[in-house]
Write a structure and sequence with these properties.
alpha/beta; Rossmann fold; 2 domains; about 50% helix; binds NADP nicotinamide-adenine-dinucleotide phosphate
Length: about 240
């Protein structure tokens, strides 16, 4: 399949790393020149072109543009009725994308995450699309059943950076107490990733609730200081 990417920034680049090894012909726009040329050098099935060349050559077009860049970037491009569009732009409705890319058919809004560049990763999709399910079959596509659910996931996923920040804080703290920084970070990343992928949260939290244990005491300290209340308030405000 011929896949085109308009915008070759952070998320488009990560998705190209995920899809290029699967053998699609990929054309990326020559913006973010360092990203575009690195992708072209890394994969023989990836080439760069102007926005018009990307549009002309593609069966499926991915939009990896910032919201304020989208309308000017898409204006005047030679979209066709036999093309399908997948947008990564959460802040622009699919109705608006459809009017900017007519007569192409807008399939779905997909939110990938940077880890997709390195291996299996979750994506949020709304509405469900067989095309996106097939293209990302080696990943975990979470199809949203309503716009309300999509918005809930869109906000809830923002917990990722506070979680990463907590590990950075614990790594830095351990270093001040005599730990090797790189070793502490590697350990904490492995600890959290392996325990979270091993199973559901409720049994994990139960198993980490030994009275007087280190995990139970730190969790209680954060609870006593309204940390989880603050988290819920922050999610409400997104
Ligand atoms: N980053 C994430 O984790 C993530 C996850 C899911 C969804 N998204 C969404 O994906 C979109 C892109 O995010 P990002 O983080 O990848 O942003 P980004 O790194 O800033 O990428 C934007 C890209 O658009 C290019 N661009 C700007 N004007 C253009 C034009 N006229 N023609 C062609 N390309 C143009 C930029 O090129 P230049 O550098 O040359 O200006 C850059 O390659 C956003 O809407 C964001 O909400 C991001």
């Amino acid at each position: 399949m011929n896949l085109g990417f308009l915008g070759t920034g952070t998320i488009a680049t990560a998705v190209v790393h995920a899809l290029a090894p699967e053998g699609h012909n990929i054309l990326v726009s020559e913006r973010s020149a360092a990203n575009a040329s690195a992708l072209e050098s890394a994969y023989e099935n990836v080439t760069t072109g102007t926005n018009a060349e990307v549009t002309t050559a593609s069966d499926v077009l991915f939009l990896g543009l910032m919201p304020n860049q989208t309308a000017p970037a898409l204006a005047g491009l030679p979209f066709r009725a036999d093309q399908r569009v997948i947008s990564f732009i959460a802040d622009i409705s699919l109705t608006e994308i459809a009017s900017l890319t007519a007569p192409a058919k807008v399939e779905t809004l997909v939110l990938p995450f940077p880890a997709i560049a390195k291996g299996r990763s979750p994506l949020i999709a709304f509405p469900q699309s067989q095309l996106a399910d097939n293209l990302f079959q080696n990943h975990d596509v979470f199809n949203m059943t309503s716009e309300t659910e999509f918005k809930a996931f869109l906000s809830a996923q923002a917990v990722l950076s506070p979680v990463a920040q907590m590990l950075a804080e614990a790594t830095g703290w351990a270093a001040t107490k005599g730990a090797d920084t790189a070793k502490a970070e590697a350990f904490l990343r492995s600890l959290v990733a392996s325990n979270l992928t091993a199973g559901a949260l409720t049994p994990l939290l139960k198993s980490l609730s030994t009275t007087g244990g280190y995990n139970a005491r730190l969790r209680q300290h954060l609870e006593d200081n309204s940390s989880y209340k603050t988290l819920r308030e922050g999610l409400d405000q997104l």
